[in-house]
Amino acid sequence: MRFRQIKSIYIREWKEFYRDKISRVVVFAMPTIIMLIFGYGLALDIENVPMAIVNQDKTPASRELCYKFMENRQYFDFKGFLPNA
Fold first, then answer.
1. What stretches pass through the bilayer (predicted)?
2. Which residue range(s) make up the domain with 55?
């Protein structure tokens, strides 16, 4: 296809697009509506994740980190310590 043919098809499609009101609604309004529906309907909050800890280091710093995870009841459901692998 030559450039002139491509240009004429492009112009014809844009004219058809602006004549047809339904096409404009589908192209512009539908993505906005879908974003609003899924944006408010989708929750990515992570809560009450079951968790077990393997503490192979056994230093005061690692124990403190383990206790910080155990204290955080909003996000983690601490199940216990696992033996070393």
1. 21-43
2. 49-81
Contact 50/77 with Cβ under 8 angstroms?
yes
Quickly tell me which residue has 């408010």 as its tokens.
40
What stretch of H or E contains 31?
Answer: helix 30-41
Q: Both 53 and 29 in a single domain?
A: no
* E strand or H helix at 81: strand 76-81
Q: Which residues contact 54 (CB under 8 A, 6 or more apart)?
A: 81, 82, 83, 84, 85
Domain count, the chain: 2
Q: Measured in Å, how far apart are the chain's first and last C-alpha atoms?
A: 67
CA–CA dist 59, 38 (Å, integer):
45
